[in-house]
Structures are given as structure tokens and as C-alpha cells.
Amino acid sequence: MSYKVYYFDAYGRAEAIRMMFIHAKVEFEDIRLTREQFAELKAAGKFEFGQVPAIETPEGKVLVQSGAINRYVGTKLGYLPSDPLAAYEVDNLCDAINDMYMKLFQSYFGPSEEAKAAAYKAFVETSLPFFLGKFEARLAGQKYFGGENPNVFDFCFGGFLQQPNVPKFQDVVDKFPGIKAHQDNWALVFADHLASRPKCNM
Ligand SMILES: N[C@@H](CCC(=O)N[C@@H](CS)C(=O)NCC(=O)O)C(=O)O
């Protein structure tokens, strides 16, 4: 029995999990649920809080909540430091990128077209450069946020910068040389996966 990753046919909150398994060369079943399949499994109580991503361990335990899953998989596969302060440094970056995602999501799911356009403008002009500046400072010229080897945040961030909407704001990314180098390296490390993964909108 291998791990199973349950999500929709999207990158979103599951792609960092998938990338950790791929990087560690750990086999997993990539289960991309249709809305109907999701509704059935949800009704059957498969996902504790009724949402995905979820993973199922080889022992059959279903884990939910992306942050907790990232930490679990990261710990299992060696992408999370054991020192509490070092682990905090990874976690706080993961929390920060979630805050950044929330800003971007406002432009996807706003109440009107005007609100979505305003949220997107605010994301590109304010939130994105703010967070990228903070991340660039923490990267501090290293190859990975984890130093020589990637940590959980590298997977969250690396996954984010390979999303199909990134070309629309690549000019902002290009202003941060360390971040751009991370993005380019990630594209090389995951070249096979990026070329073969199912094409999704987000
Ligand atoms: N806090 C949760 C949020 C999960 C979440 O929002 N999942 C969405 C997909 S990205 C979902 O399952 N939506 C379907 C629904 O809520 O019915 C996590 O980080 O895993």
C-alpha cells in the first residue's frame, strides 16, 4: 500500500504535498476527485472537516488540514528540522505564504468583477512585493530556504511559483533575484513533473 493524496484536479493546497513525495521518490496515488466523488466521500465522513487535501497513510489513516499534512509528510521525509526553533522558522514562512494566498484568492472569489479586479491589483502592487521581499530576506542568498536541501516551505513556495497564473505577475517576481533563482532552480529540479503533471488552472 502506498500513500494516497486526495484533492481536486488542481495544484492549490495539494501540490506541495505531491512535490515532497516526488522529490523523496516515495510512491503515492494522486487521487483527483470530481465534485461528485468528493461529495460522496465527504458524505461518508472520509475527511474530518469535510475538506481536502487529505492523505491516507499506507496504514489506512486519513490525515487532513494542509498545514498539518505538510508538517507530517515533511517530518516523515526529512524536510522539517527537529529543532523547535528551526521548525518554527519553517512554519512561520508557511503561515505567511498562506496569508499571501488569501490575498490572491480574493481576486479569484471576490463578490463582483470590480472587487476581483481591485483585489488583484492590490495583490500584484502591494501584497506580492511585500511578501516576496520578506521571503528574499529569509532566503538570504541560499539555494533553498532549508539551505543546501529543501524544507517544507521550499515546497510550498516552489509550488506556488510554478502555477499557471504566475506569468501574469512574473515581472514582479523578476525584481527579486534570489526568488527568481529559486524559481529557476525549482523548475529544473521538477522539470519532469512539471512537464508531465495534469494541466490545471490553479
Ligand atoms: N484549512 C484547510 C482548508 C481546505 C480547503 O479550503 N479545501 C477546499 C479546497 S482548496 C475544499 O475542500 N473545498 C471544498 C468544500 O469546502 O466543500 C486546509 O488547509 O487544508
UniProtKB/TrEMBL annotation:
GO biological process: glutathione metabolic process
Gene Ontology molecular functions: glutathione transferase activity
Pfam families given in the database record: GST_C_3, GST_N
Residues covered by the GST C-terminal domain: 83-202
UniProt cross-references to SUPFAM superfamilies, sorted A to Z: GST C-terminal domain-like, Thioredoxin-like
Domain GST N-terminal: 1-81
Name this polypeptide is given: Glutathione S-transferase
Organism: Strombidinopsis acuminata
Origin organism lineage: Eukaryota, Sar, Alveolata, Ciliophora, Intramacronucleata
